[in-house]
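Appendix B. Chain record.
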Amino acid sequence: MAWHHPEFLPGWEHSAPLPADLTQLGESRLALALCHRDGRIRQEAVRQSVRFPGLLPLVVIRCADWVGPVREHARKLLREALNVDSALDLAPLILRVGRRDRGAFGVDVLGQILRQASHGQLAVLFADPDRIVRRFAYRLAIEGQLLHPAELARAAAGDQDTVVQDLCATAALTALVHGDAYEGVLPPLLSARNPRTRSAGVTALRRAGQSEQAQPFLSDRSALVRACARYVVRQQGVDPAVWYRERCTTPDDPDLPPGAVIGLAECGNHADAGLLRLLLVHGLGEHRYSRWR
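Structure tokens predicted for this chain:
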């Protein structure tokens, strides 16, 4: 028994089947034809859909159709119909379809069209809830040099996606030419919630000639940031172990950051065991826990 046996057909095919001639169909019926089980009907529906711009989302889906002729007609129509405005609207759908087999065509066309977009137009996608869309948009913006380093730094600090964070932080620091430009870039990076973004800012302090500002990050809550800070201060001739010891010599200090405790454990030696042992009775649990992390 074929999968399209009449008893399994959708109700509308029984009550209102499509005519053989699709040229007289309106938009809603043509939308049904674009989703029809018969590839020949889908192919003809793609040809007729040029009359209705509202059907372009379904044409995007047909660009990844498993039937070759349907796919080719849909791709030709998409290439002809897509402009910057419609590309911005359809970007989430095109990128989602792009994850399918035979879906790469739409993504390529989308990139070609959106490379013509201005900063203001592309910015619509920077706030899209889909992280795949944001990644795509930021890559295009970086490629086209549409964003200033400070804008990239703010994006790295504000976006929740780690790929966007790394992408924008790297691009912000790579785009810098003059030292004074760091003033708009380093503060967002250094104050970012994400450790990878903060670590990029800390590492850049050396290149900016501001290595001394890395010392407070020796006690950062992130091991990655602490490691980067130790690298920067060592280049300045400062021994981070000495810095840590100075802060851990008063075991009952309520202002002692927990990161200083674990930092000493990370780069100290056996002689520091006594200092760390004293912190086992520190009033704050974070410090007692840090000793054993």
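Further analysis of this model is presented in Appendix C.
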